[in-house]
Amino acid sequence: MAMTRLAASEAPYFLADDREVLRSGPTYTIDTVNELGQDCVLLLGADAVRGVPSWKRADELIDRVTFAVVDRPGVSRDDIERSVLRKCTWITMPRIDISSTDIRSYVASGHTARFLVPEAVAAYIKTNGLYRTVPS
């Protein structure tokens, strides 16, 4: 949550909301959307969107939110629109082919997260020694 707050602080139009972290038990996107009680836009990579039909109460979620989808390698727009979401908005932006798993692995191998995440987040990762492998 601390890293999310740091990343969100760099843009006035982002808000780091901790309701899912504070909720006890399993947390589902549809519960958060219902708590917000307003129109929501979910920004997801196309690879993540493929999994939406398996999410808790997926049909209700699809009816309640607008999906803003970012292209990801190996995922066809046609496949997403045909099989997952008939209605979505595609976000046009430069493709950055790196995942959070890639970043964690990169840092674990002794590199810095600088230039891969917002500067404040990279500093937090370094200061707190996150993702470093423990020598055996």
Walkthrough of the structure:
- With 136 residues, this protein is an alpha/beta fold.
- The chain has 2 domains: 39-96, no CATH class; 98-136, no CATH class.
- Helices cover 41% and strands 11% of the residues.
- The protein is built from 8 helices and 3 strands; from the N terminus they run αααβααβαβαα.
- The protein has helices at 2-8, 19-22, 29-36, 46-49, 58-64, 77-84, 100-108, 119-127; strands spanning 40-45, 65-70, 89-91.
- A 3-stranded parallel β-sheet has the order 1-2-3.
- Helix 1 (2-8) runs antiparallel to helix 8 (119-127).
- The longest helix has 9 residues, at 100-108.
- The mean pLDDT is 89.
The main β sheet shows up as: 3 strands, parallel
Q: How many helical elements? A: 8
Q: Total domains, how many? A: 2
Calculate the terminal CA-CA distance, rounded to whole Å.
29 Å
- Work out the helicity level: 40-55%
What key phrases describe this protein's structure?
single chain, alpha/beta, 2 domains, 8 helices, 3 strands
